[in-house]
TrEMBL record, chains A, B:
Protein name as it appears in the record: Aspartate aminotransferase family protein
Cofactor needs: pyridoxal 5'-phosphate
UniProt xrefs under Pfam families: Aminotran_3
Entry keyword Transferase: yes
Organism: Shinella pollutisoli
Amino acid sequence: MKTQEAMVNAFIEGAAELDEATAALIAQRKALLGPAYRLMYERPLHFVRGEGVWLYDPDGNAYLDAYNNVTSVGHCHPKVVEAIRRQVGILATNTRYLHGAVLDYARRLLATMPSEIGHLMFTCTGSDANDLAVRIAQAHTGGKGIIVTETAYHGITQAVSEFSPSLGENVDLGVHVRTVPAPDSYRSENVAEEFTAAVRAAIGDLRRHGIKPALLICDGIFASDGVFDGPAGFLKRAVDAIREAGGLYIADEVQSGFARTGEAMWGFQRHGVVPDLVTMGKPMGNGFPVAGVAARPEVLADFGAKARYFNTFGGNAVAVAAASAVLDVIEEEGLLENARTIGRHIKEGFQALAGRHACLGDVRGAGLFLGVEIVSDRAGKTPDAAAATRIINGLRDENVLISGCAKAANVLKIRPPLVFTRENADELITKLDLVLQRLS
Amino acid sequence: MKTQEAMVNAFIEGAAELDEATAALIAQRKALLGPAYRLMYERPLHFVRGEGVWLYDPDGNAYLDAYNNVTSVGHCHPKVVEAIRRQVGILATNTRYLHGAVLDYARRLLATMPSEIGHLMFTCTGSDANDLAVRIAQAHTGGKGIIVTETAYHGITQAVSEFSPSLGENVDLGVHVRTVPAPDSYRSENVAEEFTAAVRAAIGDLRRHGIKPALLICDGIFASDGVFDGPAGFLKRAVDAIREAGGLYIADEVQSGFARTGEAMWGFQRHGVVPDLVTMGKPMGNGFPVAGVAARPEVLADFGAKARYFNTFGGNAVAVAAASAVLDVIEEEGLLENARTIGRHIKEGFQALAGRHACLGDVRGAGLFLGVEIVSDRAGKTPDAAAATRIINGLRDENVLISGCAKAANVLKIRPPLVFTRENADELITKLDLVLQRLS
């Protein structure tokens, strides 16, 4: 059995000196919650309050949050808080009774998608959404085979963990799962061609084993693989390939959805393809548990004819109130545009830093979803996970929150709240510069 | 393919005349949410407000809720509402940072369980909890085989739907799943013996097919099977059998937990056995999405050594605030005792009705989790699903909410909020009497 720490930026016991209070909380956690939970950072953080882009520890120290995309319109956004506070005192039942708000929300959300996508179903988490999407895809295609990128994360249910290779080598992939290399635009000149060829090879291998292909699932921006956005449109031919093979294309928008890319409401839109199923989660309720699956009606028909779906909390009136408020805030505060302009500003700032710090091998991403690849050698593009870890923890010590990802654990993962200001961006850039200077 | 309506008390289009507003909402639902959703009742209900044991339709008509066990301490309980309102404005992050409240809650919840159970993990739904519990059990035992009762419902993820036979014949059971008859105390004098023999036979059949048994999962009170509480202690020998075979016993307390049985905090406690894993959900946050898995530490160790578990919303500070408030209310309002005394009062009332209405074949259950078996012939104990449907819809027309369950779809399922008063109970009994009079 390999070591358990497949998780980038996981806290590892004994790796750093801890203050007494932190050590005591960690000991309690271990005793009460058991061994499967992970903390982040060499010295884990304890937060007691959040507001906008800031998280506060018990001593009142403020941390600039450039990582959490759940609280995507900012921690405790007053409008979302107010919507939850109002509805929670009125009603929270379930979808076996009629309620108007869930319908109004579905209509509004579906209006942000291509017209081919006509239904919306509600779950509580992105994992549940991907789990349901796979059931729908398998019912429609009659196949089981699943194709994912090799460091993908799609969720934590048993079925979904079987196609979430980033969980590590000790979590078995399903026998019906094939992985393809991530679309590594840093190392390849022909991402579209190579990715398509890999998907075609995976389809062939599934068939060779008597497994009918059911689906290709891709992040709008390939997140845990290393924040690969790739050239716009590169995904189209791989989608054609899976469809030719009788399979579906599921767009996992749990991370790239809700305006994060700054280009469009959904990450898949940059590829000029219309998915068969779209899954969404994390930022949908700005922290309130709500997630969902949008589907082409003809794809959902087979599942609906065979099975019923009921998610006790999915689509209840409070969840829908929170989710509606998130859409309001995205519109009213112009957050799609903010993600684009502030994201571009950060990207340019990072690119300028790359001129002075050779370890910044690649700066990529779209909008406020950015990746910075850390290398020990620019010519060879050699991943430097140790340096990435030092940078992530160095920023943490400067009260700035980011994390890491990628197969080689060497990519900085930066996903600030969509309300990030130019001032916040400059602080992030300045502090990264400072940490990099210390590193060299 | 069989008809899709495996769900007891499902709305069936065209079965009854609907008013215009209801028909319009249903048409919108179908268009927006697609074909997999189900409504309850011949004439579905539309609720806009809830308070205590009451749900209100848009015209202000009050319905007595004797069914919803999610809002277990009453719709919009002021103390739970206040806890959510407070915390939602302070912080809602996740378990990759330290937070004291999740630990305080885990300590408090675990104190309600036998001392052998030492860890608590957080999910959002009971489905996720059962999905995680199975992953833990399979990691610990090295087996895959699952034994469930033949009309069990344990959840909706792909893995869990494979051992939730109540979803209907069109949702395939897993090849590693075996079903045993429910412990039908109405038709058997020897529930313990027969149930144990069936579990032993299922173990043998799994092995005969080369499948190592991993677990037996049972509701504290067998819910969708027909609200079978059985004689206290009857489960013990079946648990012994699965353990002898190297498998674990998972107690599904999603419905029977949190004081519902009136006897103890957890349904399994009536059997004098300590489970290996306990799953919980629906009433845990009184409508706020929160659920969990409690585990013996030695059982969780193998999973924790191999895999990490992260549930984005599971155990966040708002979920924990809601869940803590629920425990406060159960204690402060004496709801365990209320479930016992009011449950007994209802049971006695139903038993009295059974003296006058021959179709009430059996009245069973514990606390505020009651089942009434409807039969066409007492001597033959012949299930009468049509009469059960008429009673459920008759009560709905009298503004009282219950539903149905069981393999033969002939059992009234009654699960009022734990704050049900004697007056509420008398109204339920009186109206059932009225509906039964009309039926005969």
